[in-house]
Batch of 2 targets.
Target 1
Amino acid sequence: MSPTTGTPFDTWLASDPEVARLIGAEAEREATSLQLIASENFTSPAVLAATGSIFTNKYAEGYPGRRYYGGNQVVDEVEDLARDRATALFGADHANVQPHAGATANLAVYQALLEPGDTILAMRLDHGGHLTHGSPASITSKIWNFVSYGVSPATDDPDKPGEVIDFDQVADIARRERPKLIVAGSTAYARIIDPHPFREIADSVGALFLFDAAHPAGLVAGKAHPSPVGVADVVTLTTHKTLRGPRGGAILCNAEHAKAIDQAVFPGLQGGPLEHAIAAKAVAFAEASRAEFRDYAAAVVANAAALAGALAGEGFRLVSGGTENHQVLVDLRTFDAELTGKVAQEVLDRSGITCNRNTIPDDPRSPFVTSGLRLGSAAETTAGMGVEEMGRIGALIGETLRHRDDEAVLSSVRAEVRELCASFPPYPTLTGG
Ligand code: DSN
């Protein structure tokens, strides 16, 4: 049953049975398999409703009170609401809620603060950085000069396993390269990122400091992680990962950079804002300001730790020895030297366990193949799973990968996954589950 069942969407979609069928099929997939991609979540029905609202009809180039088209009285109210809720939630001076994605938000910040050719110091992609942190495949590396820092080497000491951001290295490279901007943040890093050492290093070389909080935004909002707001000059986020809102981005900054950031987003980079997504961002910011969201953020972290513990028990090596956020980064090589991330992802998919392959620090395999898997607890925590279920999921992952050529085992795991998911439907109020 689709999450739109019983809502007006269901009636409206009757005119397009093909798309209606696909929405139903995706709803079925999401409800009957485990969603462990660290950058995904299940939004609330309210976020879904706002995303599907008639704000999608309206052109609104510009900002509240300064639009290029008429008829924006209501849109102005909704965008102001989203901005006010974002600044209140994160304690920021200014919010721009128009970026279509986290990647666009980062591009806008570079454009606002830098000149083409300026040097940016950011995290290495193969150590957990993002494409917009200077990947050769990204436009960012064609416009700006990126230099990168990484994590420390892995050790055999369980008390100091390494693979954490090496601040001595960050400081050394900053002194040598004199970047105009230092970027903190990652897509595959299971530890808390403390903004303060980055601030000190940035100040020591006269650099600006961007904290890309795409992944931990919800953990920051839910007070499970330290806030970079007020420490970094600018903070970018995505609204759809741990923050549990609609797909999109946002930028928070101090008053000094507000005008430049706004101009960089529009007209610098984007045209008309997606006001239906902005309405949904407003809903998500309000939801994340409630007391329950703090419980949620704490549960996300506890669940990731439980999943990490279960996976370690199955014989997997965990990059950095464990987790302090919503992610677990698994090195498959100790479990099975022949097993690649690509094969593991595909086999787990067949068992109903959805995750993504990921490079691990200094991965000998290509980014398309990889030696690692990235898993996340944000979505299934929303569905109501707890540490007990995470233990069961860790065991199911071990069983699947240990017997990956045995169809009977894969079918039996698939059945167990269905049973587990049936007890934790992501949209119980809409599907009657
Ligand atoms: N694709 C996002 C992630 O999975 O982390 C980053 O852009």
Note: Residues 54-288 form a domain with the Aspartate Aminotransferase; domain 2 fold (CATH 3.40.640.10).
Target 2
Amino acid sequence: MTKPIVRFAPSPTGRLHVGNVRTALMNVLFAQAEEGMFILRIDDTDVERSTAEYEQGIKDDLTWLGVSWGKTFKQSERFDMYDAAADKLRAAGLLYPCYETADELDRQRKLQRVAGKPPVYNRAALELTDDQKAAYEAEGRTPHWRFKLSGGTVTWTDMVRGEQSIDVSSLSDPVLIRGDGSYLYTLPSVVDDIEAEITHVIRGEDHVTNSAAQIEVFQALSTHLPTFAHTPLLVGADGKSLSKRLGSLSMLELRDQGIEPMAVASLLSKIGTSDAVEIRHSLQALASEFSFTKIGRAPARFDEKDLIALNAKLLHETPYAEVADRIPGDAAFWNIVRANIEKISDVEAWADIVLKPMAGEIAAEDVDFCKSAASFLPDTILPETWSELVGHLKTETGRKGKGLFMPLRLALTAQGHGPSMDDMLVLLGAEKAKARLSGDVA
Ligand code: GLU
């Protein structure tokens, strides 16, 4: 296969969320797997809603995920190319002016529905004479422009969905240019895909119908036609649409919540595939496992619980050197507490317990028991000290199980759970441990 050229084409009208990041990853991983090129295209033809801040935010989000692009450009700088393409379509009789208002179109659709017909544009504008067009324009109407679909069947072999066949006579001729002269996404996208020689258009299956129309636009403008891959959409753990929740599932939010980029990338590239959902430590590792043949047809279930679990797994496997500048404490501290955290910020609580002065929790009935533990402790704590202490107290007091070790854990850490006490005792050191077991702040 020649080296693929793919593009991810977000609109800068918001930050990236799990849905579009999944699409971005499919493109990135495929390109990496095939040593191709990944292009970041900013779809900002909607100048009202697009902002430079969101554009920068999208780039920051991708960079945070470890994604880099071979090339980036934005559509708002390429209107000349789209104008030229529109002229070409007009000259071929494939782009025609329409004067209906939104209300008129709405009424038409209602009538069609009442008559039991599909709400497909009736192509009345194709019948307009020059005089009628001039009359509309004299009225102050400016035309919007529709692409004339062939009325036939568009077929393609989709890398995810297999053989596709769409009868475009069931579709309305798509509007390519609005009444105010602005472009909808359909034409600029095709023009850019031709110009950038995109080999594979990889996007969500909400674009399947678009693809049928866009394939006809491709054919009208060029001999270049990319291969298509439409991936199933993400749904929530309950199988319901995520659309209302996507705001809180932005990279910005997840990052603020302490989710690591590789937890996001691992989950989003594995759900909905035949691979197990497991943590991977680099995009390269994910790319080496990527294949369109592994992507199922059912919606991919996104569950935040899986994200937290993967995040924890990732941290449990992360060496100190990779987090040294993000955490208090040293390698010994990290190696002991990492198994007990889900997010890197959880380290703070353990750092407070280990590094800052505090009093443990000692119930009235455990005061003497803890004191005798304090007096047993040697001045140097070794990894075996804990089991020696517990063995000694067991013989001395007859306590066992929880009644034996829980009062000690509470006195030393004020927590009922945490890293193994052999390790915690070493981290605390003799002085702190003795003081806390004696009920002092240390
Ligand atoms: N800007 C379009 C979107 O976000 C791009 C779709 C495409 O990849 O062609 O839906």
Note: Residues 421-437 form the longest helix (17 residues).
